[in-house]
Design goal:
The protein is built from 12 helices and 11 strands. By secondary structure, it is an alpha/beta fold. The chain has 2 domains: 179 residues, D-Maltodextrin-Binding Protein, domain 2, CATH 3.40.190.10; 131 residues, Periplasmic binding protein-like II (D-Maltodextrin-Binding Protein, domain 2). It has a 6-stranded mixed β-sheet. The protein has a 5-stranded mixed β-sheet with strand order 2-1-3-11-4, with helices on both faces. Strand 1, helix 1 and strand 2 form a beta-alpha-beta unit. The chain is globular and about 65 Å long. 38% of the residues are buried.
Amino acid sequence: MSQLQLTIATTDYDHFRDFRSGVVKAEGIDLNWLNLGHHECFARFTAGREFDLSELSFAKFSTQVTREDSDIIGLPVICSRLFRFSSFYVNKKSGIKSVKDLVGKKIGSPEWAHSAAVYMRGWMHNEMGVKLTDVHWYQAGANAPGREEKVEITLPAGVKLTRVANKSLSEMLASGEIDCAIIARPPTCFLEGHPDVERLLPNYQEMEEDYFDKTKVWPIMHIIAMKKSILEEHPWVARNMYNAFLESKRRSIERLLDPAVSRYPLAWLSTYARKMRDKFDGDPFPYGIEENRPTWEQMALYTYQQGIAHRQFTPEDIFPAGIMTKVVI
């Protein structure tokens, strides 16, 4: 029987590498795997559905999967996940000493549907008492001007958002034009040691570990999206792809835990990896629905509250029926 030909675009993650290289295969599928930067994956899949499957920002995915008659569906495969308390950068002259001091301030992020910012805005709004309407929000490129929103959004009533096309968040934060930036990666002004720019939450790792212990939320940034038309014609594809992603990830973590075969030339990395394995109940990077239910449900709430998702979804709404069917041997 001939193999089904599909094209997928992702960043070069180690947990995908054995699948991408062909060491691990999805039964019945021949993949043309494009190794692209994640912003290129997002832009090209969002604008033109150039690939059959693609890495996609979870926030942007939530917009598109909740459209009426959506043409995409997800796989419960995580490309990227990071805690985000490290993502708050402030100008010292703004006098911000705590999250509650952000009331009435100007805060920037690269896009409104920017997963890192979605998580932190949701945390501020739901847990810290800093409501979406308490802040004047700004949108601009992180370190270069010109970044645009890639999906449609409907801002909640009373939310103020100013888009800036000719400056970057890094420039505006350093100059004091904005008081704070929520950015996935450290802005240039911080990396270059600007004297007025610092992290708001320098004890972020301790906060993140405590937060996980309390909530079991392990924030998901990017997942795999797929055209629904593929499943309509070949309903077996989703589980076969999921199985291969799972095996590729298992092999990656196995290497990480074994200092004799690790890809990464760092002392004590395997020791830290074993600590993380134990912290996350045996799997430091879980895929699946039940394994991540608190995180899927939190993002469903936050994206809906923030006018990114068209409706509040459940995990069962965004993944193929039966994707997690148990196979007992």
